[in-house]
């Protein structure tokens, strides 16, 4: 079986590489010629643990190829996965222009049966739009070529994407024909050796499943952040509360960790898109609007703690950031809480120094010369009035606090992910603030 993956971003490159790892012939397609040329040289455009080695291995074996010419590969392709970007429009709805452009190109150039699979996160009804776009192009050409459209949403977590793809909880597939189901069953058969489930359903349900899953996870995060904020007011410890409710098998412990807000490329965008989809159908997603509102407020929690500690005057105060990416094991800073916090501190006249183990290049692209960049956690802490932990990288877990205290101007620690022992730091003479503690 030979497949094409259109789009070599996070989803496309990981998916294509993992399919190749299981023996499938894969051609990754992208209109960015510079990116394609770099991939041919083994230069990976994103950071994901283990991805570089897997790309190099499969490219050298001939199972993974890269091209800018989708038209040229359509003749001998069984399945085309569409994994292009679906950025949010200004009103929060999803921009499908890249998805429909791929569909148009397929319709203009296909001559044999092809199964087109939406891998991108797209609103309910997108598969029908893709089908209509392809059919319109075939009609314009005056030819009748059979094809199917299916939905196969991704559930990858940045930082563990390869493990998630190779050993998934489940694979959700939306189809409306036996042939499409047969092809996708064949494609995923090698993975069945790992005893995971392929769940077939109708296409609309598959499209909705992706949004519902991300919305549920974001809801759990915002719920715990709301509880954490109330814990501070009433004198409770959110870590104990989390342990208490997480032990209930009906609730479980995952995604119940309070912090300084969620970010990334998925949760914020997908929640906005689902809210807009509902509005277009005359329905109000009141719970998700509250989830979004809580998260917006949560990204300001650490700023408010800083203001309180310095009596509202942050002018010329040096604030050191430990972590910038929206989560560990990625360089992704899209919608990262760190960006909101840095902007507020700079706006209040503060000075910001930053360090992240992986996201420094991305930080320079986002922040330019507005901040200073350190070489490690000690470098940024030198003469700092406060340290703000935003991303819980492993290397931040056990710093030498005695060394940190000696080089700081003011011994203030703001723990945005509750990874430190409050009593220990207070015993060492630090002023410590976490979330909900």
Please explain how this structure is put together.
The chain is α/β, with parallel strands linked by helices and 437 residues long. It folds into 3 domains: 2-200, NAD(P)-binding Rossmann-like Domain (Rossmann fold); 211-297, NAD(P)-binding Rossmann-like Domain (Rossmann fold, 3-Layer(aba) Sandwich), CATH 3.40.50.720; 300-433, Rossmann fold, CATH 3.40.50. Helix content is 44%, strand content 14%. The chain has 18 helices and 14 strands. The strands form 3 sheets. Strands 3-2-1-4-5-6 form a 6-stranded parallel β-sheet, with helices on both faces. Strand 10 (351-355), helix 15 (360-367) and strand 11 form a beta-alpha-beta unit. Helix 1 crosses helix 3 (51-60), helix 9 (203-234) crosses helix 11 and helix 9 packs across helix 12 (286-298). The protein is elongated and about 75 Å long.
What characteristics describe this protein?
alpha/beta, Rossmann fold, 3 domains, single chain, 6-stranded parallel sheet, 437 residues
How are the SSEs placed, and which strands pair?
Layout (H helix, E strand, L loop, with lengths): L1 E5 L3 H12 L3 E5 L3 H8 L10 H10 L3 E4 L2 H4 L5 E4 L14 H13 L4 E5 L7 H16 L5 E5 L9 H6 L3 E5 L3 H11 L8 E5 L1 H32 L3 H9 L20 H14 L5 H13 L2 H9 L8 E5 L14 H11 L3 E5 L4 H8 L4 E2 L3 H5 L4 E4 L11 H7 L4 E4 L6 H6 L3 E3 L4
User: Regarding quaternary structure, how should these chains be classified?
Assistant: single chain
CATH topology of the largest domain: Rossmann fold
Number of strands: 14
Known CATH architecture of the largest domain: 3-Layer(aba) Sandwich
Mean pLDDT: 95
What count of structural domains? 3
Low-confidence stretches: none
The fraction of residues assigned to DSSP E strands is 5-15%
Class from helix and strand fractions: alpha/beta
Number of helices: 18
Distance N terminus to C terminus? 55 Å
| Computed CA radius of gyration, to the nearest angstrom | 24 Å
Tertiary shape: elongated
Q: What's the helical proportion of residues? A: 40-55%
What's the story with the biggest beta sheet? Answer: 6 strands, parallel
CATH class of the largest domain: Alpha Beta
Corresponding CATH superfamily of the largest domain: NAD(P)-binding Rossmann-like Domain
> What strand order characterises the main sheet?
3-2-1-4-5-6
